[in-house]
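Notebook entry, structure prediction.
Reason for the run: the old model in the group folder had no record of what sequence produced it. Starting over properly, with the input documented here first.
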Amino acid sequence: MKRAKYLAAVFLGTFVYVLLSMTFGQNSLYCYNKMEEQKRVISRQTSDIQTINSELSLELAALQNDRAVIASYAHKLDYVSDGEKLVKITGLRPAQTTLYNTGTVLRHEEPEFISEKICKIAGTSFALLFMLIFFLYDISKGNIVIGKNKKPIVTGIPVYDVAQI
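New structure, fully documented this time:
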């Protein structure tokens, strides 16, 4: 029974280490969830940028090939072709050009975690604490005697000092 208590202390220390490592360590579930969230944000931003890129590619192709689109952009920049008359109207707001929002710059963020060293120290501390508790319990119950007050060990046949009748 004595050994089982001390093995239980080692088991509890190992359990604390594994629990801390799996929940808050470097390769923990917490870090995994943080990295998955970053992956979702980056993929969403990438798809938005790809959509903007395809729109701009279509606009570029139209500006390079379609004369009506070229004339429309030239008119927005106050250019006129031969034979056209320009009429300026004041008091109206200028036409708003499309501005593309490509989002913000995303930087890789390292998730916060407890180092492996701290997990091991915590596990070892718990194991030593429980060993100390079990050791003190054994001393208080008399299972372990320290010092000169040792119980005599009787070997052989026990002899009792009983009064004779």
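Summary: The CA atoms of residues 153 and 159 lie 13 Å apart.
The old model has been moved to the deprecated folder.
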